Amino acid sequence: MKDYIGEVINNREIAKDAYLLEMSFDKLPPIKGGQFAMLEVPRDDCILCRPLGVCMADETYAAFLYQLKGKGTHALTTLEKGDELRVVMPLGNGFPIGKYENVAIIGGGFGVVPLYLTAAECGGNARIYNGFATKKQILLGKEFDGVGKLTVCTDDGSAGFCGFPTAALEKDMADGYKPDAIFCCGPEPLMKAVKRMGEAKNIPTYLSLEARMGCGVGACLTCTCKADGHNKRVCKDGPVFSGKEVYQ
Ligand SMILES: Cc1cc2nc3c(=O)[nH]c(=O)nc-3n(C[C@H](O)[C@H](O)[C@H](O)COP(=O)(O)OP(=O)(O)OC[C@H]3O[C@@H](n4cnc5c(N)ncnc54)[C@H](O)[C@@H]3O)c2cc1C
Ligand code: FES
């Protein structure tokens, strides 16, 4: 983990309140799917950096996809081509890519962000189930289609599979698909459903947790969660935890 100064290549709204920030760097270390970054906020009264999943990356490039929420993300939307920004990364553990051959990846809403790199690193083997409330909220449809077998799901049936991504995976499993593990990032109800599904079907699950963060590097304890009955830091011990450890 290190501080990098990057230059903004592009920062544009790709869906309602969803911004893709692309940046170039001199040289980045390898970044694992599920790791995140702390981005400096270009606003004087925002001292704390904001955590964002690394969506895409190579040796000199990183892309972040963020939802407009409060003053930090609003300030990020003001970044323009050529602006410089300090980014601390890669942070956290990431998903255990390489440990399993056939991975089912489940994302919900902005939870799909760290799963793009995760799916790409699975080498085209992963089946991806990304769920959104409605067609207008679909993120990175084309991009995900290129890195695995994608099923887009919408709650209202306006595109793709009608229903939750867990239901789409259940359907494929009823047809004979058996993943070795399930990786998930999304809203808490989705991750709890994935944990239950894994337990019922005896499939290991890995869940990427979210918490309010101060430092992002394990020093301030703002992001503490309970895992296996102990206090753990989402930023340093996670954000990816085994489903067995959390939501007990
Ligand atoms: C490891 C990690 C990875 C993340 N990756 C992404 C990502 O790839 N894309 C993305 O859009 N968002 C991501 N988030 C959430 C993102 O960090 C927050 O939305 C952002 O910090 C809000 O900052 P703000 O100043 O705009 O909002 P604030 O003014 O701080 O808060 C506005 C609203 O957002 C909520 N909020 C603030 N921080 C969080 C948080 N950490 N989790 C949930 N809700 C929060 C607040 O409760 C409040 O309602 C991630 C969070 C973590 C911990
Ligand atoms: S955010 Fe400071 S310890 Fe996790």
Model description:
With 248 residues, this protein is of the alpha/beta class. It has two domains: 2-91, Translation factors (Elongation Factor Tu (Ef-tu), domain 3); 103-208, 3-Layer(aba) Sandwich (Rossmann fold). It is 18% helix and 35% strand. The protein is built from five helices and 16 strands. It has helices at residues 71-76, 113-121, 141-145, 165-174, 188-201, and strands spanning 2-15, 18-24, 36-39, 50-53, 56-57, 61-67, 84-91, 103-108, 127-132, 149-154, 161-162, 181-185, 205-208, 224-227, 230-233, 240-242. The strands form three sheets. The protein has a seven-stranded antiparallel beta sheet. The structure holds flavin-adenine dinucleotide and FE2/S2 (inorganic) cluster. Flavin-adenine dinucleotide is lined by residues 36, 50-53, 65-67, 69-73, 110, 113, 210-213, 239.
Helix and strand arrangement:
Layout: E1 2-15, E2 18-24, E3 36-39, E4 50-53, E5 56-57, E6 61-67, H1 71-76, E7 84-91, E8 103-108, H2 113-121, E9 127-132, H3 141-145, E10 149-154, E11 161-162, H4 165-174, E12 181-185, H5 188-201, E13 205-208, E14 224-227, E15 230-233, E16 240-242
Parallel strand pairs: 8-9, 8-12, 9-10, 10-11, 12-13
Antiparallel strand pairs: 1-2, 1-7, 2-6, 3-4, 3-7, 5-6, 13-16, 14-15
This protein binds flavin-adenine dinucleotide and FE2/S2 (inorganic) cluster.
